[in-house]
Each structure stands twice: as structure tokens, then as C-alpha cells.
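Sequence only, no structure available. Ideas?
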Amino acid sequence: MGVLMSRRQTVEKVQKVSLAVSAFKDGLREQPSTRRRAEVGGTRQGTLEQEVQEGEEEASAGPSQPEESSASKAAWERLRDGRGVEPEEFDRANRFTPPAFIRPKRELHDDEPPDISLEQREQVLNDEMCEICEVWTAESLFPCRVCSRVYHDGCLRRMGYLQNDSAVEVTETAHTETGWSCYYCDNLNLLLTDEEMYSLMETLRHCKIIPETCLTLDDFLHYKHLVHKQQFERPMAEAQEEQAALQFSALDPDKKGHIEWHDFLSHESIQLLQKLRPQNALLRLLTTKERERARTAFLALDQDSDGFIGEGECRRARHAWFRKHQKETPSCNVSISHVGPMSESSPASSGSGKSQEKTPAATEQEEARPVDWPGFLRENVAYILAARPNSAALHLQPPA
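Reply:
I predicted one. C-alpha cells follow.
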């Protein structure tokens, strides 16, 4: 009886809030829109080169300069607040208010080794109520494959996070082994603290990267050269430039010739996490579902149950975290022992002739190096985190 009363009170509370929101929106309709100019300017798409060229043309024109400054400021604010790119046609009169993201804070014990046991399995439980409206409606809730949150598809649409093709993707994959990442887990940038986000924004400003624009290969390589020279005070080596080009290919799986802004931002976010945080701190970012998926993978690879696997198997596991992007095999937590080598057309293998030149003796030596459970987690944690976004891009390309 207590549970039923609690749910009824929750529904009544939501109804009251909905009435208040509707009344508030009715009042807003009578006022002129003050953000239309910023929204129109802040949602323009294109490559970095096109954006710079348009900016120079508008600067010479004169009158539109204030608008450009306002749009640029709004883009930087969205980047700082982790809100991402707002939809171009955002009908606010019929949508919920987007949530205010609170960036995490580092704790004193974050750098200490976490206790993640291989033998002690963890129970994976999803929330019972929708994260947005806080109403329980059983099978109509879509679970996130990373965290415990669940959502209604209608609530996601009213939030502006579910549009066109993405609605079909959520419906088809949310209840499968492939899964779907909610808007919290899909955005790797939200893992950064305020200080880390400030560091990333300063780097982007120094390299003249314009937020919410696409980057071509030349843009990406130029950016990587500047960052490397800024950090190490020497030019990037040829081998490092080739690796950056391979990473660009991994971020552009559809071969469009450019990478989307959210993919570039996720890649830079995970790179910054690797640079600033020790592996123990990264391990604390893993959710219960991700830890259980890692246990399942390790136990499947440990055929003799001695607590060790080979280095080659550990290396293949890094590729398997991105298995969700293979449409013909919609499963991301199936036994990794079923995952074969990367296909020749994959970004990680194309142009990687050096890996094909390995001698059999070197391969046998690599396969023979034992890796225990803690080592398996440390070597794979960055790739597990990088596999969170729904995008088909590989935000952290595993070495071949």
C-alpha cells in the first residue's frame, strides 16, 4: 500500500509541475524571442576552413560583426556547460527544459587502486522511473547500456535528444545486447572537471578551433601539430603524424572527408583524461554495467581459469569494446573470444603495414606475456570509456 501511495503522489506531483510549466510557457509565448539571433548563428555547420572564411567575409562587411561575436560566445558557453549543439529548429514551447549538467569533482582517494574483484559479480539493476518525468511505466522505458538510468522515448523527444533516425536507433537497440547510451553517457566531455574543461578550452582557443564546426584532415593534423609542439616544444615526428591520420580515419567511418564536432570533442576529452588522470582514477569512472561486461570478457578469454590471459587476447579485447558498431552482429557484451581480427577495411588496420610485418617469433612472444585481471582493467579502461558514445566513430583507436 505504501508503494502504491508513493507512486500516486509522484504522478500527482508531476501533473502539478506540468500545469505550472504550461502556464509559464503560455506567458512566454506573449513575449518576443530574445535568443533567436544567437540560436541561428550558433547552429551553423560546416568545416573549420569554411567557418573561418565566412568569418573573414563578415568581418569585412562590418554590420554583422556583433552577431558573429554573440554566436561565438554562445558556442563557447555551450561547450563550457556541456550542453552540446542545440537543435536548429528548437521548438521550446513544446519541450522540457534541458537539464543543467554538473561537472564532477576530483576526490582525495581517486588515485588509490579501487577494489574491483574478478570473483565477486555485481548485480546490474536499472532505475524504476524515467530520469526525466520520474514516472514508472514498465516495458515502455528505454534503459541506458552504461548507467542505470531509464527513459521514455516521448520524454527524450520533448527534451530534443531524440530526433529522426536516432528515434529508430533507440527503439531497435535499447533492449538488445548492443544497447543505447543516454545523453549523459554519450557525451564523454561530461567526464571532465571544471579545471580539465578550462584546460581543454584554452587549448582549443590557442589552436583557433571554432566550436561546433566540422574538421577536415588538414584541420585535424594542423591542430595535432600545434598541440604537440606546445606540449613538447618540438615538431611532431612522421610516425606520430601517420598515427594522427589513422585516428582521423577512425573518427570518419563513413569517409565523408571530415569529422563531426561531437566526435572530435569526445576524442579530445578521452585524450585529456588519459593525460591528466592516472589509471586508478579512470577505473573509478567505470559503471557497474561496464565492470560486469569486463568481467564477462576476461572470464571468456581465461580458458584454463588460472587468472591470466595472453597479451594478444588483451589487445584483441581493446578492439572488441567497439563491437557495437558492427550492424551485422548487434552485441557489445558477447564473449570476446568470438571476436576475430580487425577487417582489412577497418580504420585501425588500413595503412598499418608495419603491424603485418611482425615476425612469427615476435607474435608468439607477445601472445605469451601474461596479463592478470587488474592489468586487463588498467590496459582497457580508456577504451571501455571511449566506447560509450552511440556514434559509429572510434574515439580512441586501439593500436593494431
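The chain has a mean pLDDT of 75.
Hope that gets you unstuck.
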